[in-house]
Structure to design on (96 residues):
């Protein structure tokens, strides 16, 4: 069941990012670039919107990774160990 965002949180763009992120199935990942392409934006803007995500892990921003398989940040920090653990629990194998 998809998480429905409560009203009043985030900008219009942030909400679009969070809705798209919510559509990423458990056990799968997408890149910031893929999301940016879907939103006609930039990967950096997507990353900033995910950094502001107040609904994690219901809006699973840990499922968004950098190009080339790099993990990128998590929770507004370079917290790759936590992101790696969350993805591993979902069956996603990450490069060391």
């Amino acid at each position: 069941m998809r998480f429905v965002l409560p009203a009043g949180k985030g900008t219009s763009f942030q909400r679009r990012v969070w809705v798209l992120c919510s559509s990423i199935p458990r056990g799968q990942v997408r890149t910031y670039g893929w999301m940016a392409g879907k939103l006609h934006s930039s990967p950096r803007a997507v990353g900033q919107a995910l950094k502001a995500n107040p609904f994690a892990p219901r809006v699973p921003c840990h499922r968004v990774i950098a190009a080339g398989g790099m993990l990128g940040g998590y929770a507004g920090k370079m917290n790759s160990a936590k992101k790696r653990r969350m993805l591993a629990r979902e069956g996603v194998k990450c490069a060391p």
